[in-house]
Amino acid sequence: MHSALILAPLLAAFSTAQHVHFDIPEVERDIQSMLGEYHQYTHYPGPSPTYWHHPKPRPTKPVPALPVDKCAYWLADIKHQGIAAFNPSPSTYTVFRNVMDFGAKGDGVADDTVAINNAISSGGRCGPGTCASTTVTPAVVYFPPGVYMINGSIIDYYYTQLIGNPNCLPTIRAFATFAGGLGLIDGDQYGANGLGFGSTNVFWRQIRNFIIDMTLVPAGSSVTGIHWPTAQATSIQNVLFQMSSDNGTQHQGVFIESGSGGFMNDLVFYGGLNGAVFGNQQFTMRNLTFNNAVTAIDQVWDWGWTYKSININNCSIGLDMSSGGTTAVGSVVFIDSSISNTPIGIRTSYGSNSQPPAANSLILENVNFNNVPIAVQGAGNITALEGTPTTSHIDAWGEGHAYTPNGPNTFEGSIPAVNRPASLLQSGGKYYERSKPQYQQYPLSSFVSARSFGATGDGHTDDTTALQRAISAAKASNKILFLDHGDYLVSKTIYFPSGSRTVGESYSVILSHGDYFNNMNQPQPVVRLGLQGESGSLEMSDIIVSTQGQQRGAVLFEYNLNSPSSSPSGLWDVHARVGGFAGSNLQLADCPTTPTINVTAANLDQNCIAAFMTMHLTKSSSGLYLENNWLWVADHDVEDPALTQITIYAGRGLLVDSQAGVFWMVGTSVEHHTLYQYQFVNTQNAFAGQIQTETPYYQPNPSAPLPFPYVASLNDPKFPNTTVVDGDLVIPAADAWGLRIVDSSDILIYGAGLYSFFNNYSTTCSDQGNGEVCQDRIFEVIGGSAITVYNLNTVGTHEMIEVNGANVAFYADNANGFISTVAIFRSA
Ligand SMILES: *[C@@H]1O[C@H](CO)[C@@H](O)[C@H](O)[C@H]1NC(C)=O
Ligand SMILES: *[C@@H]1O[C@H](CO)[C@@H](O)[C@H](O)[C@H]1NC(C)=O
Ligand SMILES: *[C@@H]1O[C@H](CO)[C@@H](O)[C@H](O)[C@H]1NC(C)=O
Ligand SMILES: *[C@@H]1O[C@H](CO)[C@@H](O)[C@H](O)[C@H]1NC(C)=O
Ligand SMILES: *[C@@H]1O[C@H](CO)[C@@H](O)[C@H](O)[C@H]1NC(C)=O
Ligand SMILES: *[C@@H]1O[C@H](CO)[C@@H](O)[C@H](O)[C@H]1NC(C)=O
Ligand SMILES: *[C@@H]1O[C@H](CO)[C@@H](O)[C@H](O)[C@H]1NC(C)=O
Ligand SMILES: *[C@@H]1O[C@H](CO)[C@@H](O)[C@H](O)[C@H]1NC(C)=O
């Protein structure tokens, strides 16, 4: 085929772009130079054009007609050339491991425990109890189809992706004699000193595409499928749990007792005493199905939890929020779900006299009950919401404290449902949802490898040109770009056009460096997702965007595409990581904390300014689906064995100022930015839940906005230069906002955890009983309409809600243990 034909779509995209008017001269210049560079690509003298159809370099024999192997999976077959750039010996360290290469048989007979554990642990990796965390030993551990018998736990390590073949799911089956610890897969093995990894520091890991089979283990033996105390940027996807449903079964599918999660989706549970036992600060879970368990979900504790598209069938209790005691569960949002053939749908310990009154806050929206006699049961087994022997549909129901916008009003009962914008919905009235594409239906020939295309990912070579060329070529030939694991150093903006599909390997890193990204007066995106005015959609998954060294003008993600609401763009398991890791040049030695120095503009360490903004959904953009994204400015050095805290400055978190809106933020969190974490300005139509934020630990030393001067065009917040005094309390008033919503409408937040744990690196302020408060205000709404926040949970914050500058909700009026909870906030 002629290269001209292959390039036709690319040409079309660029010629569209050329008609677009760019109002920022810098952007205009940038586009023109990019187009110039593009024209060079057309003359790219490298491999012959046929190469673009065959990702394998220089094929030596004709490609045979595709055998129809229904289990073929590109990830298994692609050339494995990912490298861990900052590993001490990248040339010998292996990222991709196939358990068969370590002696696993997968034949349903042999004991594969040792082989699988060797596949995970080999190469000097970061194991529980011996290593706190690191980014330099990433691994993909791949399981071909088969039945893998185990007699002891598979011990998961740090930064590990356990990936089964999605076309023919491998089964991990416990022998009847299974003598594992906690879990067929133990994500955080207990040792002499407790959990092997601190559960709130377990980041960047996945398990996907498995059948976890416990059915050979006698029903009366307690056995757990996956033990998963975990934190941000982690996921379990597409796993089926098979447990005994015999009378007296002691099996459980997933067990989480702590952490700061996290995301799960597409899980199916059969049988068990508990389908799942969940206890963690906050989590988002979507598309879970439970059949024939005694209790589908035992919610042992939380601050906030967002469940969406949950199907519970033929259990005794659907969701039990009472088992941990009356105060253990802070709040739950449960939407777009159904419970069938189950005597008690949801059990809470909420009652008219329960203490604290905000405990067990619960919101249901768009939930179907079918043959559920008691839909919600409260304290003393009193029926709070009647069910029926037949079917009933609950538009919206809840219990807790309401501010609409003033309060608190204690309520238990039906509430007006959110008036859902049609653009955010799929058929049937549910909010749109889409799982991370694994591209399992595509043959190997549909993939292009970034490293095969000349990008090194070695963390040292400038990969700007090679990476851009690979992206453009993949798009032009309608292929999926595989970004082999590596750290791709870039000195100019990397542009992802509409139509591009990019998938990383155990979080491939795009790492900006250099002067181009270091001018606070002329910020530049590291990755630009579409040009202003460009239409269409793109997909990206398993990628991290980061910066290296001082990057005062870096905007890690700039999303400009105008994607239709019916086929939005998507970013799944795409994260930002700013400072605190090998290769960032912003580690403990570079950016130590300085609590005993009063930090001012004059003495602030300018070298530790690592980003201008993390993600910007720009004015002309629309139609983006975000799922499981963690935009993290490091609070500690991940490579340091003691996880010592560091001070890194990044100005703004996630700014949404798109005019059309239409965004989904499913399980996102934004942490430690100086001015704000989430800011919605002049925008509309967003579904978000669970969102989670943390205020920078150094504030108020210095206070916001230091070191980021006010920028009017970005609608930066303005901060007072005084403290707030309330009795004996002197409260910092210029800390970052967790959430700011300005002149916007239909911003619909289904669960928010806005946390302020520190003042000047001390946590005494987070428990408000100590005569200290971390910050005065954390969430404000200015103007706009149709704003709803369900289950707003705050920590360390004096005033929970500001409306047009006025304090609306005082934390103590909504006390809920360590947190404060408002079940419903609605703007006027
Ligand atoms: C599994 O472990 C138990 C206890 O250590 C042992 O008795 C049994 O023989 C083992 N089974 C297999 C299949 O290895
Ligand atoms: C389940 O087991 C308990 C105790 O062994 C017994 O009392 C009960 O009748 C059994 N239920 C069924 C349905 O078999
Ligand atoms: C929900 O999860 C199941 C199991 O993985 C999957 O088959 C199904 O397609 C998922 N549904 C959606 C809407 O993604
Ligand atoms: C319902 O669950 C019980 C106990 O788990 C099981 O015995 C029964 O077969 C299930 N019914 C259906 C229709 O699945
Ligand atoms: C509520 O019901 C459970 C069993 O479903 C029972 O164990 C408990 O004693 C009951 N509590 C009250 C106060 O009736
Ligand atoms: C910060 O905390 C340290 C103690 O760790 C204290 O010495 C210092 O005065 C504090 N600085 C400010 C500005 O509060
Ligand atoms: C630093 O700030 C603290 C708290 O504001 C103040 O008490 C202390 O005097 C300041 N120290 C210096 C050296 O300015
Ligand atoms: C604080 O802000 C006020 C009003 O903007 C200003 O007049 C005052 O000089 C500022 N004080 C300091 C110490 O910066």
Strand and helix layout:
Blueprint: H1 3-18, H2 25-42, H3 74-77, E1 96-98, E2 107-111, H4 113-121, E3 139-143, E4 147-150, E5 154-155, E6 160-164, E7 171-174, E8 185-186, E9 190-191, E10 194-195, E11 205-213, E12 223-227, E13 234-242, E14 251-256, E15 263-270, E16 274-291, E17 295-313, E18 317-320, E19 331-340, E20 344-347, E21 361-377, E22 383-403, E23 409-414, E24 447-449, E25 458-462, H5 464-476, E26 480-483, E27 487-490, E28 494-496, E29 501-512, E30 524-529, E31 539-547, E32 554-559, E33 569-578, E34 609-617, E35 622-633, E36 649-656, E37 661-671, E38 676-681, E39 684-694, E40 724-726, E41 729-731, E42 737-742, E43 745-755, E44 775-777, E45 779-782, E46 785-795, E47 797-803, E48 806-810, E49 815-816, E50 819-826
Parallel strand pairs: 1-3, 2-4, 3-6, 4-7, 5-8, 6-11, 7-11, 8-12, 11-13, 12-14, 13-15, 14-16, 15-16, 16-17, 17-18, 17-19, 18-20, 19-21, 20-21, 22-50, 24-26, 25-27, 26-29, 27-29, 28-30, 29-31, 30-32, 31-33, 32-34, 33-35, 34-36, 35-37, 36-38, 37-39, 38-42, 39-43, 42-45, 43-46, 44-47, 45-47
Antiparallel strand pairs: 9-10, 21-22, 22-23, 40-41, 46-50, 47-48, 49-50
The protein binds 2-acetamido-2-deoxy-beta-D-glucopyranose (8 copies).
Helix content: under 10%
The shape is globular
Q: Over the alpha carbons, how many angstroms does the gyration radius reach? A: 26 Å
The largest sheet is: 11 strands, mixed
Q: Give the CATH architecture of the domain at 25-429.
A: 3 Solenoid
Total DSSP helices: 5
Q: Kindly state the mean pLDDT as a whole number?
A: 92
- Bound ligand species: 2-acetamido-2-deoxy-beta-D-glucopyranose
DSSP strand count:
50
Distance between the termini: 61 Å
Give the strand content. Answer: 35-45%
Unreliable sequence segments: 1-60
CATH superfamily of the domain at 25-429: Single-stranded right-handed beta-helix, Pectin lyase-like
Computed structural class: mainly beta
